[in-house]
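Aim 2 progress update. The chain analyzed this quarter is reproduced below.
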Amino acid sequence: MSNTSLKTTAEWNQINWRKLERQVFKLQKRIYRASVRGDVKAIRRLQKTLMKSWSAKALAVRRVTQDNKGKKTAGVDGVKSLSPKQRLDLLRTLNLSAKVSPTRRVWIDKLGTDEKRPLGIPTMNDRALQALVKLVLEPEWEARFEPNSYGFRPGRSCHDAIGAIFNAINKQPKFVLDADIAKCFDRINHEALLRKLNTSPTIRRQIRAWLKAGVMDGKQLFPTSEGTPQGGVISPLLANIALHGMEERIKEYAKTLDMKDHRGYQKGWQMKCQSLTLIRYADDFVILHEDITVVQRCRELISEWLKSMGLELKSSKTTLSHTLIEYEGKIGFDFLGFSIQQYNVGQYESKQGFKTIITPSQKKQREHYHAIASIIDAHKTAPQKALITRLNPVIRGWANYYSTVVSKDTYSKLDHEIFFKLKTWAKRRHPKQNWSEGAGNYWHTIGGSNWNFAAKEEDNNLLRLLSHAETPIVRHVKVKGNLSPYDGNLVYWSTRMGTNPEMPHRVATLLKKQKGKCTYCKLYFKEEDVMEIDHIFPRSLGGKKEYKNLQLLHRHCHDTKTTEDGSVRGSYDKGQITEEPCEGKLSRTVLKQRRGK
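Predicted C-alpha cells:
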C-alpha cells in the first residue's frame, strides 16, 4: 500500500465520528421540536444549516458507502465499494445539483408470487445526496406523521401495527376493511407529492430531479413521469409523505357520525374518533369499526382521497370481513403475516364473551415450511453440520418474528412436519439400514431432551438443530403514541431495540449489558444503525465465543477497530452471526507485539 493511500485511510478513520453524530443529532432534534410547535421559519433555517454541514455530509457518505448493504451494488456509472480515499473525494464534491443520473433497474422476485418487483439503484453520488436530504427532512416529518402509521419509520415495526389492531378490537368486535394500494411506489403523482412536501426551493428542485431522472433497463432509458423508484434511500420517506393524511381524513368523518351512548346522549368527538381506527403499514392498511355502513363509507372516502395522489385501491386485495362473526363467508383477516380472529368463549374465560387470538397466517406457515423443505432437499448429500448451519438462522428468524403472538401450537406443528422431512432425508442416506439403526447417526439425547437432530463438531460438542417450540412467547409492548427517536429520549429507544422480537438473543443481551451504547464510540445505538458483534480478544489467538469476550459495535466503529488490530469481524444481519476477515488486516506477529505492549 502506498504512503498516500495509508494517509488517506488514516484521515477517514481518524474522523471524530462521535463529535459529528452529536452535532447532527442536536440539529435534528431542534428541527423536530420546531416542527412540533409549527415554527416553519425555524425549520427552514435549521434545515439549511444541516444541509450545508460538513458533519451531515460525512455521515451521509459513511451511511451509503460503509454501513448500507447496497454499498457493493453499482448504479449506472458502475461505481461501488468505495475506498477511504474515494469516500473523502465524494465528501468533498457532495453538493445538491439538478443534474442527476438515471437509476439502474434491477428485477427481484416478489415473495409468495411469480411476479417480479422492480428496484431502481441510484449512483453512489445520488445515494449519498439522498441520505443527506433524508437527514434533513425526516425529523420535520416525524413530528407530523400520524400515530397509526408504522411502515418505514424509525422506531416502529410490524409488531407495533399488530399491537394497535389488538388494542382497537380487544374490547369490542368490529368490521374490518383490509386494503392494499395498487402499485403505490410506481404511481405516486409527482406534482401532488411536491406540493405536499412544501419544502425549500433547493430541496424541492433536487427531489424533482430525482423523480424525473428516468431508469435504465438494460441499455434502454425509460422516462419516469410518475412514482418513486423502489431502492432509493429517500423513497420510503417520500412514500410515507405521499400517504400522510389518510388517518386525519377518517377522523374528520368520524366526528360527523351519529353515535349515542347507553343513556341516549350523543357521544363526544373523541369517543367517535376512538371507535373508528385506521392503521397503516406502508401501502397496506386496515379500517376498523363496529358498523358495516361506516366501514363501507370509509372505503369510498379513502378511494377519493387516493385519487388526489394518483393512486387507487387494489380490488383483488381489498376485502371486508368481521373479526368475530362470519361475513361474506369469512371470519377475521390477515395482516403483515398474522391471522387476526376472535372466538366466542364462556363468561368465565372472558368478561366480553370472546377472545382475540392472533397467530401466524396459514400462508406464511406454508411458505416457511416450503423454504425449510427446499433447503433440506438441496442438502441431500451435504454433511449434517452444513444442513444444520443453514437451517438454524431460518428457524430462529421466523420463530422470533412470531414470538409475540399465540404461536406455540404452530411451532409444535412445524417441528413435527420438519421431523418427518428430516427422517426422509436420513433414510435416503442409509437405504439398507432400518430406521432405528440409522436414527442414531443423526438424533441424539442432549440433557433430558431426546431426539435432537445434532451433529458432532471437532471438539466433540454437538451442533443442534433449533426447534420452533423452544422460542419463548413474550408479548410486545407497542410504541407510545407520537413518540419519535428525534425527541431525545435515547434511553427509551435503545431499550426498545433490545426488546424487539426480531433481535437475536445474543445481540439483545449485549445491548442490555452495554446499556444501549457502543463500547467504542460510547454513543447510543439508534434504530437505523448497523450493529456488529466483535471479539475483544480475537478467536485466532485463542479468544473464546463467550459474553465476557464479546462486545457490540457500530459497523463503522468495528471497521476502525479491526483496521487497528486486525481482528475478525462478526456481524448481526437479520438474526445471523457471521464472521469475515476485515480490510487492512495486520500480521499475527504485529498483533501480538501490540497486545504485548
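The CA atoms of residues 396 and 548 lie 23 Å apart. The first strand starts at residue 103 and ends at 109. These observations will guide the mutagenesis experiments scheduled for the next reporting period.
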